[in-house]
UniProtKB/TrEMBL annotation:
Keywords: Glycosidase, Hydrolase. Pfam families: Glyco_hydro_1. InterPro entries: GH (IPR017853), GH_1_N_CS (IPR033132), Glyco_hydro_1 (IPR001360), Glyco_hydro_1_AS (IPR018120). The active site is at residue 364. PROSITE patterns: GLYCOSYL_HYDROL_F1_1, GLYCOSYL_HYDROL_F1_2. It comes from Pseudoclavibacter terrae. It comes from the Bacteria. One of its GO terms (cellular component) is cytosol. One of its GO terms (biological process) is carbohydrate catabolic process. This is Glycoside hydrolase family 1 protein. GO terms for molecular function: beta-glucosidase activity.
Length: 470
């Protein structure tokens, strides 16, 4: 059994993204987003326009089945549900002056259901779905004009939902723009043609927009708490070599910069050195510097994997996993090649807490796997003991971090119901406690079935972590 109790009021729940589960991609006046030209995920170049093979156009039909799904979350005992608002459902092109009322009304209905079941909403303002018009017309966040469009969007959300939503996240995995400029920054310029000058200018624009949203939220909804959202990824040296340790430091810095700006309100020295040495001259106005001083209330993050790094270019045969690095010989991998490292979660939680001294929130963690629907005692289910083991081991390490003194607000598993994968655009890469009958070819009934992990997680929540096995 675990040696520490999770704190009273701990926010147990699950996490999703609009573009991966809603569907209804043209319903209710919704406009197109970058996801509509990414039918194969982040590994393939974008298409010219929407195609018939884009599973995200239907997703798992949460747009029509949200009440049924939220009732299932309530049955598990969710204290919170993380979902995102589709920017193009509120502003179809992104640069209109007035919002789309049908889109706003949809999220009113979602919030109604959450309130009915006593589930706290945790809302992501922008989760990998920049309106396509903004990508095509402005090259996404490369343009400073997007700050104003995002500000207008955020004001509408805070005004409409500010009295109903306490926890907000500005951008999903904001540091992922380093790896996936289109997905994360709405930047249509191909990654291999994108200059570092334009990439870091886009990053700066997002950071300013995030701080501006934080300022506006605190003005419109004084009780709101706003967090940034990062990919958390501990980096290990492959060998004890100081050269490897330096590479680790540089990779770590590239990710920590985003949190530093969100928490401290200015760029750290190592980032300024990077800009100088690479000849990057950011356009930073005096107004930008003032806006950046609006710092976040908490740090939220996803955690799926750690990486190993080395200064030896011959040491790694291929990437260690989707986020780069070299293979770590001490760790097992998922079916999609992601290093499984529960202890890394405790390590990165301590690192973030010691560095920033702000409450933490784990808003994504989970195992993508190929589940098999079977019949047990006349009931269709999935015997996903592998997922139970994965989540148990990570939660035990989160408990250890709490015992270390880390302030942790909550934990939301990624893809608490099966949805379309962001990285590969597959439905066969499943994360949920709830199996959705839909396949990679688009076939299926969309029926929902509880997996074995459904009851396991319900017990974890009921006991506030007491049922976990160390």
């Amino acid at each position: 059994m675990t040696t520490t109790n999770f704190p009273d009021g701990f926010l147990w729940g699950g996490a999703t993204a609009a573009n991966q589960l809603e569907g209804g991609y043209l319903d209710g006046g919704k406009g197109l987003s970058i996801q509509d030209v990414m039918p194969k995920g982040i590994m393939s170049p974008p298409t010219e326009g929407p195609t018939d093979d884009n599973l995200k156009h239907v997703g798992i039909d949460f747009y029509n089945r949200y009440a049924e799904d939220i009732a299932l979350f309530a049955e598990m005992g969710f204290k919170t549900f993380r979902f995102s608002i589709a920017w193009s459902r509120i502003f179809p092109k992104g640069d209109e002056l007035e919002p789309n009322e049908e889109g706003l009304a949809f999220y009113d209905r979602v919030l109604d259901e959450l309130e009915k079941h006593g589930i706290e909403p945790l809302v992501t303002i922008s989760h990998y779905e920049t309106p396509l018009h903004l990508a095509q017309t402005y090259d996404g966040w490369v343009s400073r004009e997007l700050i104003g469009f995002y500000e207008r969007y955020a004001r509408v959300l805070f005004t409409r939902y500010g009295s109903r939503v306490k926890y907000w996240l500005t951008f999903n995995e904001i540091n992922s723009v380093l790896h996936a400029p289109l997905l994360s920054g709405g930047i249509l310029t191909p990654k291999d043609q994108l200059s570092e000058q334009d990439l870091y200018q886009a990053i700066h624009h997002e950071l300013v927009a995030s701080a501006l949203a934080t300022k506006i939220a605190h003005e419109i909804a004084p009780n709101a708490q706003v967090g940034c959202m990062l990919i958390a990824m501990p980096v290990y040296p492959l060998t004890p070599s100081p050269a490897d340790a330096l590479v680790v430091m540089d990779v770590d810095h590239s990710n920590l910069m985003f949190g530093d700006v969100h928490v401290r309100g200015e760029y750290p020295g190592f980032a300024l050195r990077l800009f100088k040495e690479k000849g990057i001259n950011l356009n930073i106005t005096d107004e930008d510097r003032e806006i950046l001083k609006n710092t976040v209330d908490f740090i939220s993050f996803s955690y799926y994997m750690s990486i190993a790094e080395t200064a030896d270019p011959a040491a790694g045969a291929g990437e260690g996993n989707i986020m780069g690095g070299v293979p770590n010989p001490t760790l097992e991998k998922s079916e999609w090649g992601w290093a499984i490292d529960p202890v890394g979660l405790r390590i990165v939680m301590n690192q973030f807490w010691e560095r920033w001294q702000k409450p933490l929130f784990i808003v994504e963690n989970g195992l993508g796997a190929k589940d098999q629907l079977v019949e047990v005692g006349g009931v269709k289910t999935v015997e996903d003991d592998y997922r139970i083991a994965y989540l148990n081991d990570h939660l035990v390490q989160a408990g250890e971090a709490i015992a270390d003194g880390v302030d942790l607000l909550g934990y939301t598993t990624w893809g608490c119901i099966d949805l379309v994968s962001a990285s590969t655009a597959q439905l066969s890469k499943r994360y949920g406690f709830i199996y959705v009958d839909r396949n990679d070819d688009g076939s299926g009934t969309l029926e929902r079935y509880k997996k074995k992990s459904f009851d396991w997680y319900a017990e974890v929540i009921r006991t506030n972590g007491g049922s976990l096995q160390a």
